[in-house]
């Protein structure tokens, strides 16, 4: 079983990496990128029977800093 966790900074939290990417895109001529937010994707290989609740607990304990980050879980086969 697999799970994918998408972690992003919450709205309103400064994203210096996203701003650096946006500025670099502008330097390369891609002026249409008005804003960039950078996040991370974590892929988990899980034991059969692992529940989304267990993955949520993993996110809350380690995978996301819930003070400044939000996360979304996708459970798969």
Automatic annotation (TrEMBL):
GO terms for biological process: 'de novo' IMP biosynthetic process. Keywords: ATP-binding, Cytoplasm, Ligase, Nucleotide-binding, Purine biosynthesis. Its EC number is 6.3.5.3. It is found in: Cytoplasm. The keyword Ligase applies. It holds the Pfam family PurS. The keyword Cytoplasm applies. It is an enzyme of class 6 (ligase). It catalyses: N(2)-formyl-N(1)-(5-phospho-beta-D-ribosyl)glycinamide + L-glutamine + ATP + H2O = 2-formamido-N(1)-(5-O-phospho-beta-D-ribosyl)acetamidine + L-glutamate + ADP + phosphate + H(+). Gene3D superfamilies: Phosphoribosylformylglycinamidine synthase subunit PurS. GO terms for molecular function: ATP binding; phosphoribosylformylglycinamidine synthase activity. Pathway: Purine metabolism; IMP biosynthesis via de novo pathway; 5-amino-1-(5-phospho-D-ribosyl)imidazole from N(2)-formyl-N(1)-(5-phospho-D-ribosyl)glycinamide: step 1/2. One of its GO terms (cellular component) is cytoplasm. It comes from the Bacteria. SUPFAM superfamilies: PurS-like (SSF82697). Belongs to the PurS family. Part of the phosphoribosylformylglycinamidine synthase complex involved in the purines biosynthetic pathway. Catalyzes the ATP-dependent conversion of formylglycinamide ribonucleotide (FGAR) and glutamine to yield formylglycinamidine ribonucleotide (FGAM) and glutamate. The FGAM synthase complex is composed of three subunits. PurQ produces an ammonia molecule by converting glutamine to glutamate. PurL transfers the ammonia molecule to FGAR to form FGAM in an ATP-dependent manner. Part of the FGAM synthase complex composed of 1 PurL, 1 PurQ and 2 PurS subunits. PANTHER family: PHOSPHORIBOSYLFORMYLGLYCINAMIDINE SYNTHASE SUBUNIT PURS (PTHR34696:SF1). This is Phosphoribosylformylglycinamidine synthase subunit PurS.
């Amino acid at each position: 079983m697999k799970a994918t966790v998408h972690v992003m900074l919450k709205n309103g939290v400064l994203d210096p990496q996203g701003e650096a990417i946006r500025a670099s895109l502008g330097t390369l001529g891609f002026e249409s990128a008005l804003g960039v937010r950078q996040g991370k994707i974590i892929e988990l290989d899980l034991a059969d029977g692992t529940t989304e609740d267990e993955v949520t607990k993993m996110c809350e304990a380690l995978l996301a800093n819930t003070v400044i980050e939000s996360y979304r879980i996708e459970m798969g086969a």
